[in-house]
Amino acid sequence: MTPPQRRRRQPLPLPPPAPAPPAESPADRGKQPDRLYTITGPDGERAPLDLVTLIVACADPPSSATPEQTVVLRMCAAPLSVAEVSAYLGLPFTVVTVLLTEMLAAELVQARAPIVRQKLPDRSLLEAVMHGLQRL
């Protein structure tokens, strides 16, 4: 029995070079997303916001609101965390904190601390459970 003969692999043909991108026209620039610094504006002080800080809308969007602010105000009719707002907008956390800081200064939204559960349950609840177990 003779061993199988191996064939040498032929190199794959190179793909043709990509065509040069067309020159940009002003009409095409409107289709590109905005740069993050145009959304946030000048860098200033930021409100102390965590990922779990809850944001609640206080007012309807004014006519002078940016599209991002309008979306945030509509989303935050019910409390949302800053992390959720960031995820829904598809923007980084830092950009959202700057945006929310401006909205807090304009009193369009309120920031609330997250609801923290108690570390230990209430003593009366523990006593009720203990008495219930003793009756069994």
UniProtKB/TrEMBL annotation:
InterPro entries: DUF742. Residues 1-10 have a biased composition (Basic residues). It holds the Pfam family DUF742. Residues 1-45 are annotated as: Disordered. Residues 12-24 have a biased composition (Pro residues). Transmembrane segments: none annotated. This is DUF742 domain-containing protein.
